[in-house]
Specification:
single chain; mainly alpha
């Protein structure tokens, strides 16, 4: 049985979208719309949340819930 990945605040936006591209919807809900931006491949969720004024822990929780299908 393959272990499901867990989203962490140290992951880049690009890595999160590689895990599951459907998580873009959750990111957009937090005001992160810059998937085509080259920074998305280098910027972590924590860094992006600081720039956008988002609670990173809440965002990571929502991303993991979506990944589990909750």
């Amino acid at each position: 049985m393959k272990k499901k990945p867990v989203i962490k605040k140290t992951m880049t936006i690009g890595k999160v979208l590689q895990i599951d591209s459907n998580l873009a919807t959750v990111l957009m809900g937090f005001g992160l719309h810059c998937f085509g931006c080259p920074m998305s491949q280098m910027e972590t969720l924590e860094e992006a949340s600081m720039v956008h004024g988002v609670d990173v822990d809440m965002m990571v929780e929502k991303l993991n819930q979506a990944l589990k299908g909750e």
